[in-house]
Every structure is written in C-alpha cells, then in structure tokens.
C-alpha cells in the first residue's frame, strides 16, 4: 500500500499541487474508510481494484471532490457534484467573520444567495443553533444537493431552500421578509479569465462567470440588499482578489459602510456590509 500511494503521488505531480493528499483521499474513498484510518492501517491494507481508474480520472484533471463526491468545508462533510461549485477553503472567512460578529448578537434569520451545495448556509446554521435560514439558488440540481446536505448534517428542520433566479424581476419578494445575516458567494469571475482545467472543465460556469468584468451579479445583489437586510443586519459578500475597490464603490453608493477582509492566502476575499448610519 505504501508503495502504491508513493507511485500514485508521483503520477499526480504534474496535475496537482497536492499529489500525495489526492492519492490518499482517492484510496480512502475506494476503501470506504477515513484518511486517518488509511494512514493508521497502511501496512495492513491491500491495494483494491479500481485505484488506477480513479487515478486516471484525476490525471485528466477531474477534481478529487468530484471523484469522491464530497468536500469538507468548515470541518463539515458536503456532498458535491458537477452541479455545484466545490466549497473553497477561502470562503471559510465568511463563516469565521459571521461567528466573530455573531458572538454577541447571534443572527436568527440567515439568507444564502446562490447557495449551491448549501455550504455557507449550513456551516452558519451549525454555528448558530437558534437560527433558521433560507438558501436560494437558480439551479434545481444545486438545490437537490443542498437539501441532501441539510439532511445529512441534521439541519433540515432549520433550513429552507428556494428556487429563484436573481435576474428575474421582483425576485426579492419571494423571500418574504428581512434577514439579519446575508451570505453570498456569487459568480464573480471575468469571462476573460483563464481558469485551471479543474475549474473550467468540471465546475458549473453559471456559478463562476459574471460578465466581462466579473461584476454582473454584484450589480444585482447589492442593490437588492435594501429589500432583504434588516436595519442592523450584516451582509457578507465574497469577492475576487482584485474586486474590493469596485464592489466597495458600488456598495457605498447604495448606502452601506464597507469593511474588507482577507482570506488565508492574504487576498481580499470578503466585504462586510452594514447600513451606514449617517
Ligand atoms: N473562487 C472561485 C474560483 O476558484 C470563484 C468563485 C466564484 O465565482 N464565486 O475561481
């Protein structure tokens, strides 16, 4: 087994920045055990049939999360597929910030715009046991996945999912009320951007691309906050590393005070919006 993992890691070096981890995750998946158990029991395990087929898929740039059908976010397991954006560690800054701000005044009504796998909404609900939340998405397949995730995390009694498209007129009305915490990781990639093959060939373009400047969805979401955000509520909006300036200007024009936060890699990743009291 040790040799098989070593060889697999070597074979993945040209396609992955984390070849050893990828090999371990694929092997653990095939054996139906956790990565921890794989590493603990390494000498006792035989290499199962089918490992090379999984390696071939990874060598063709398919993300590990798609091959194993799962990705961890905020230390919770999320089922994923090609219908949803794979939750990124960078987005955990939204949850970290929600927890920081919510410690004194925990939110009770949470909205996740473009919920996809449900990762942001469900991670937030796991932190705020008194809160209920709505995850909105324009993709029925994504909502099915979000439903599954709510069920398997034991959060379905507090999570509701709504099929709705924010390019439609009056879409905010179907949300029926105000929220004290709004989360959003909207599409924000420029259609001119060059993405890795993992992303461009396997992840849903609808969840990624937002026009020539990557700004199209912010121009819809930020003005709509007016109808959705409670007076003392906060909105946590994910941004691309080079979008803080433009999105801040847009939000300030709409009357919000804006604070920018960085992800683990030190890139601008999050804007915290509050209604400006002045
Ligand atoms: N951060 C994502 C990427 O890897 C983009 C996510 C998004 O558009 N919301 O490209």
UniProtKB/TrEMBL annotation:
Residues reported to bind S-adenosyl-L-methionine: 114-118, 137, 166, 185
Signal peptide: none
Binding site residues for substrate: 185-188
Domain Methyltransferase: residue ranges: 107-185
Record keywords: Methyltransferase, S-adenosyl-L-methionine, Transferase
Enzyme Commission numbers on file: 2.1.1.297
CDD domains linked: AdoMet_MTases (cd02440)
Gene3D superfamilies reported in the protein's UniProt record: DNA helicase RuvA subunit, C-terminal domain, Vaccinia Virus protein VP39
Biological process annotations from GO: methylation
TM region positions: none
Release factor glutamine methyltransferase N-terminal domain ranges (all copies): 4-69
Catalytic reaction list: L-glutaminyl-[peptide chain release factor] + S-adenosyl-L-methionine = N(5)-methyl-L-glutaminyl-[peptide chain release factor] + S-adenosyl-L-homocysteine + H(+)
A GO molecular-function annotation: peptide chain release factor N(5)-glutamine methyltransferase activity
Function: Methylates the class 1 translation termination release factors RF1/PrfA and RF2/PrfB on the glutamine residue of the universally conserved GGQ motif.
Record family assignment: Belongs to the protein N5-glutamine methyltransferase family. PrmC subfamily.
Protein name: Release factor glutamine methyltransferase
Species of provenance: Parasphingorhabdus cellanae
Classification lineage: Bacteria, Pseudomonadati, Pseudomonadota, Alphaproteobacteria, Sphingomonadales
Gene designation: prmC
